[in-house]
Amino acid sequence: MVAIRVDGLRKSYGSVEAVAGMEFSVDRGELYGFLGPNGAGKTTTIRTLTGQIRPDAGTVRVLETDPTTEPIETRRRVGILPEQGSPPSFLTPREYLEFVGEVRDLSPDRVADQTASWAERLGFESKLDTLHTDLSRGQQQKVMIAQAFIHEPDVVFIDEPLANLDPLVQEQVKRFLVSYAAGDNAVFVSTHNIDVAEDICTRVGIVADGRLVTERSISDGDAGDESLLELFLDRVNGANARDVPTLEEMDGLDA
């Protein structure tokens, strides 16, 4: 069953065309890697799929909802882990996860169970009642991972999931993502790390200049003669460098 579908997606910021006719689909049960260099259009695509910005053209569907016209409903049903996201500085991890759980319509008991489970899994039990201003960037990333999965969504969008994590936790998170996708969920991972994409994804889409230039099945052994690295370099090497707007500039243009 298709969980995510993108057809002819276009989005510009001023004179910069960040996404230029993107097309792909992701089924339930897939861990889909969205692989490309900085400025390829990955973050803009995720922000469109999660109803944070409106496209200029094209159609997008997530769990058969339209993020453009139903952004609240879409965000209610998915999990989101942004690349530069961090918890509110004035809350503790426990308070933040309680807030997220309430927004996600979870019962207090369920929130407590999920909070305890994620704190144990990622090793931040001792930090549950510490203000986020006193946490390391790695600890904050652990809390952000927990909030993305606390309501057990059918689709999760993740931008650079392993940022700021130590190697042991990285391996734990990778194993979890693989098992979560296998449970009839769709996990969409945006990354520029070829090793991560090759290590955990069932299928990888390579993005350059705002377009999906090729796809490679990983789980079925469809590697061909060319490694993912060689394929990536071959398809991306000719792409022209572009001036890409910052997230702040994006927000300003969409206000």
- Class, according to the CATH hierarchy? Alpha Beta
Strand tally is: 9
Instruction: Tell me the Rg in angstroms.
Output: 18 Å
**Order of secondary-structure elements:** EEEHEHEHHHEHEHEEHH
Please name the fourth-level CATH homologous superfamily. Answer: P-loop containing nucleotide triphosphate hydrolases
Give the % helix.
25-40%
Low-confidence residue ranges = 239-245
Organism: Natrinema zhouii
GO molecular function: ATP binding; ATP hydrolysis activity
Domain ABC transporter: 4-234
Keywords: ATP-binding, Nucleotide-binding, Transport
Summarize the structure in words.
This protein has 255 residues and is α/β, with parallel strands linked by helices. It has one domain (2-84, 154-254): P-loop containing nucleotide triphosphate hydrolases (Rossmann fold). Helix content is 37%, strand content 25%. The chain contains nine helices and nine strands. A six-stranded mixed beta sheet has the order 5-6-7-3-8-9, with helices on both faces. It has a three-stranded antiparallel beta sheet with strand order 2-1-4, with helices on one face. Helix 3 (93-103) crosses helix 4 and helix 3 packs parallel to helix 5 (137-149). The longest helix is centred in the last third of the chain and has 16 residues, at 167-182. The protein is globular, with a radius of gyration of 18 Å. The two termini are 35 Å apart. Mean pLDDT is 86; it is low at 239-245. Keywords: ATP-binding, Nucleotide-binding, Transport. It comes from Natrinema zhouii.
